[in-house]
């Protein structure tokens, strides 16, 4: 939001998903957390990035100046999810499926026709 943190990568996206789990809801402050997953290797970070371990498997990156959630990283798998809202061109990526819809907010209605998974997608990261 404030522009103090920046990141760049030339990596090809592994997948693009919208997650509805409670942890992602809490981390993003929204009903859904949309992100593009890329390899961590080759991602260049600049600025005051802070980290919070939201689980044994995932840590969240945020700007320490304005607090914006920017990443969700699975260190053991060498991947990082870049929040679509923090991209310079977020329109370049669209989620291809919804995960953790078992925890989706009951007032949210999805009409995009994308696949839904109660938890993680099969063979997912």
For this structure, the CATH topology is glutathione-dependent formaldehyde- activating enzyme (gfa)
**CATH level 4 superfamily:** glutathione-dependent formaldehyde- activating enzyme (gfa)
Which geometry do the CA atoms define?
A: globular
Q: Describe the biggest sheet?
A: 7 strands, mixed
Order of strands across the main sheet: 5-6-7-8-3-2-9
Query: CATH top level?
Result: Alpha Beta
Number of domains: 1
CATH architecture descriptor: Alpha-Beta Complex
Strand % is 25-35%
Helix/strand class? mainly beta
State the distance separating the first and last CA atoms.
27 Å
What does this structure look like?
With 125 residues, this protein is mainly beta. It has one domain: glutathione-dependent formaldehyde- activating enzyme (gfa), CATH 3.90.1590. The chain is 6% helix and 34% strand. It contains 1 helix and 9 strands; from the N terminus they run ββαβββββββ. The strands form 2 sheets. It has a 7-stranded mixed beta sheet. A hairpin with a 4-residue loop joins strand 7 (69-74) and strand 8 (79-83). It is globular and about 35 Å long. The mean pLDDT is 94.
What key attributes describe this structure?
globular, glutathione-dependent formaldehyde- activating enzyme (gfa), 34% strand, 6% helix, two-stranded antiparallel ribbon, 7-stranded mixed sheet, 9 strands, 125 residues, mainly beta, 1 helix
How are the SSEs ordered, and which strands pair?
Elements: E1 6-8, E2 15-19, H1 22-28, E3 33-39, E4 44-46, E5 49-53, E6 59-63, E7 69-74, E8 79-83, E9 97-99
Parallel strand pairs: 2-9
Antiparallel strand pairs: 1-4, 2-3, 3-8, 5-6, 6-7, 7-8
């Amino acid at each position: 939001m404030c522009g103090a943190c920046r990141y760049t990568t030339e990596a090809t996206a592994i997948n693009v998903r919208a997650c509805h789990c409670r942890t992602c809801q809490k981390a993003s402050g929204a009903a859904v957390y949309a992100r593009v997953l890329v390899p961590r290797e080759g991602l260049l970070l600049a600025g005051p990035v802070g980290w919070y371990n939201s689980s044994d498997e995932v840590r969240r990156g945020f700007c320490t100046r304005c607090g914006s959630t920017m990443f969700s990283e699975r260190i053991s798998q060498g991947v990082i999810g870049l929040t679509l809202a923090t991209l310079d061109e977020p329109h370049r990526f669209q989620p291809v499926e919804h995960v953790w819809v078992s925890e989706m907010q009951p007032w949210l209605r999805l009409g995009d026709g994308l696949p839904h998974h109660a938890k993680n997608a099969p063979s997912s990261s």
